[in-house]
């Protein structure tokens, strides 16, 4: 990456920063724990005064792409346009179906406050208009789609849900910062944009944490861009000036300079 930026794009200065830390900075915090989930990665990253607690960082294999694929599979039972046989068509057709599934996921899917109770409800129906004008009537798939974030076994994965990973990560940190982490849980990335995710996460963590633990979930309305916002804030700080890798430094030292000045 360093070589690409300097030699191909000829940037005057460059730096690499952790995405989760940037999401935290976007909220005006220097300490907290970030649940960062996007299309290709999901991580739980505790941060103490701007520094990652590396020994306590945990990862989930459930990503935004996984949930889109999961939803697409469920949609094959909703309408014949998504049937498995159709999915064997050329890539262009498959891409269109995936784009539709992605759009449904982003616009209509939500995290159930109580998954079992919601499964018994008959009051969950939304219409989605396909590009050809046909309307799809959707119900259970809307809350089933994001549930693997909390129940990975639904995708056949034997691992902890994000709520348990969050608590486990905090438990790996020094006791002095645990209270601060519970009180500063920051959501970041497009895969955390599901309606109801913040409320469900809080309720799940409350049930796992010690009694009387104060838990606050920070869910900015534009958190899909939180890492970018955090980076723009960091670049404006005078203290960041000494962290830049300059073009001359790269020319003199090479790509190993990134290890000396990495944030």
Automatic annotation (TrEMBL):
InterPro entries, per the entry: Actin (IPR004000), ATPase_NBD (IPR043129)
SMART domains referenced in this protein's UniProt entry, alphabetically: ACTIN
Pfam families recorded: Actin
Membrane-crossing segments per the record: none
Catalytic activity: ATP + H2O = ADP + phosphate + H(+)
Family recorded in the similarity comment: Belongs to the actin family.
Name of the protein described by the UniProt record: Actin, cytoplasmic 2-like isoform 1
Organism of this sequence: Reticulomyxa filosa
């Amino acid at each position: 990456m360093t070589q690409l930026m300097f030699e191909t794009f000829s940037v005057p200065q460059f730096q690499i920063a952790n995405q989760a830390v940037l999401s935290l900075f976007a909220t005006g915090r220097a300490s907290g724990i970030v649940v960062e989930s996007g299309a290709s990665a999901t991580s739980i990253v505790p941060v103490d005064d701007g520094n990652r607690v590396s020994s306590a960082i945990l990862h989930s294999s459930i990503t935004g792409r996984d949930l889109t694929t999961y939803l697409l599979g469920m949609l094959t039972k909703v309408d014949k346009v998504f049937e498995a046989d159709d999915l064997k068509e050329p890539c262009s057709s498959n891409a269109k179906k995936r784009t539709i599934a992605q759009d449904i996921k982003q616009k209509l899917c939500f995290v159930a406050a109580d998954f079992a109770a919601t499964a018994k409800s008959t009051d969950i129906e939304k219409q989605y208009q396909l590009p050809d004008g046909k309307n799809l009537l959707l119900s259970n798939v809307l809350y089933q789609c994001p549930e693997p974030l909390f129940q990975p076994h639904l995708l056949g994965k034997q691992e902890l849900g994000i709520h348990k990973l969050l608590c486990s990560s905090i438990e790996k940190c020094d006791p002095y910062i645990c209270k601060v982490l519970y009180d500063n849980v920051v959501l970041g990335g497009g895969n955390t944009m599901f309606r109801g995710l913040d409320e469900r996460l809080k309720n799940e963590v409350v049930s796992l944490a010690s009694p009387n633990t104060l838990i606050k979930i920070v869910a900015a309305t534009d958190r899909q861009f939180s890492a970018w916002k955090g980076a723009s804030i960091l670049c404006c700080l005078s203290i960041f000036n000494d962290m830049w890798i300059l073009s001359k430094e790269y020319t003199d030292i090479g790509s190993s300079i990134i290890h000396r000045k990495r944030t």
